[in-house]
Design a protein that fits this description.
Layout lengths: L1 H7 L11 H6 L1 H12 L10 H15 L5 E5 L5 H8 L3 E6 L2 H13 L5 E4 L11 E6 L9 H14 E11 L2 H4 L6 E5 L12 E9 L4 E9 L4 E9 L3 H10 L3 E7 L13 E6 L1
Parallel strand pairs: 1-2, 1-4, 2-3, 4-5
Antiparallel strand pairs: 5-11, 6-7, 7-8, 8-9, 10-11
Helix pairs in contact: 4-5
Length: 277
């Protein structure tokens, strides 16, 4: 056990390991992720519905949705896709969580909305082309390494019609300044989230000041199972994200508060961007 805990507290190089599949495809944890998405008392997995309503509202004001072909990458349980389709968009949602997609399809059926949901990994699987809008919301972009971000931006540019819009959000360097390195340990630290069985949880948070990256590394130890989660978050300022978009052939049109659609300021937390192919 000593060697395991010793390794847990060694600061790795940025982005050597991904565990996203555990969060979204493990049968138990995927169900807990869905519950957290829908929980209106927290913004941990998705923003609350009232905030999502506001975000889709400024999508409509800024770029228009009615009649537009929209692909929502990392759509999860369809919280944005449903609202965009209700405003007249022709929506395709892409995600690799079958649990979330099952909920999204059920919601679309109950609301009589014609939304296509595809189980796929947006980094490797086929994606639809000739889109007016591609969206990637709740800072999914920030969980990727620079290499994966370059791959994704190239793929998104290929999805868009000429002049099409890529709308997404990122965590920002003022938010990084609020982060602290911590080490915690608890029995069942998040209740039944990680497992319905008894378990212990260890968390170590590492900060990479030069690169503006945070890593929350979790070790979950139960009687029958042990696993780790690596939660990477890249933080951006307007200049660094603009450079990545320029290298991919995308031009920023507006920098906005993701919650209000007003011009972004450092006090606005996450930065939303409308960029064009």
């Amino acid at each position: 056990m000593y060697s395991i805990l010793h390794d847990l507290n060694q600061k790795p190089e940025p982005f050597p390991r991904y565990t996203t599949d555990t969060l979204w495809t493990d049968p138990w944890i995927a169900q807990q992720m869905l519950k957290t998405h829908l929980d209106q008392g927290t913004d941990l997995a998705s923003r609350r519905f009232r905030t999502i309503d506001g975000t889709v509202g400024w999508f409509e004001r800024k770029i228009g949705l009615s009649g537009k072909k929209v692909c929502d990458l990392g759509c999860g349980p369809g919280l944005y896709a449903t609202r965009m389709a209700a405003r007249g968009a022709q929506v395709i949602g892409v995600d690799f969580s079958t649990v979330s997609l099952s909920y999204a399809r059920s919601e679309a059926t109950s609301r009589n909305l014609d939304i296509e949901y595809r189980p796929a990994d947006y980094l490797t699987d086929d994606l639809p082309g000739e889109q007016d809008i591609v969206s990637l919301i709740y800072c999914d972009f920030c969980t990727l390494s620079p290499k994966k971000r370059r791959t994704l931006l190239k793929r998104i540019k290929g999805m868009l019609k000429p002049g099409g819009a890529f709308v997404f959000d990122v965590s920002t360097t003022p938010q990084f300044a609020e982060r602290r390195e911590v080490v915690t340990y608890a029995r069942r630290p998040m209740g039944d989230f990680w497992s319905p069985d008894d378990h212990f949880g260890f968390q170590t948070t590492f900060l990479y000041d030069e690169e503006k990256i945070a890593l929350d590394r979790y070790l979950i130890v139960g009687p029958e199972r042990q696993f780790e989660i690596f939660n990477w978050i890249q933080y951006f300022d307007p200049e660094t994200i603009s450079e990545e978009l320029r290298e991919a052939g995308l031009v920023i049109e507006e920098k906005l508060s993701v919650r209000t659609g007003e011009p972004w300021t450092p006090e606005a937390d996450e930065l939303a961007l409308i960029s064009r192919a």
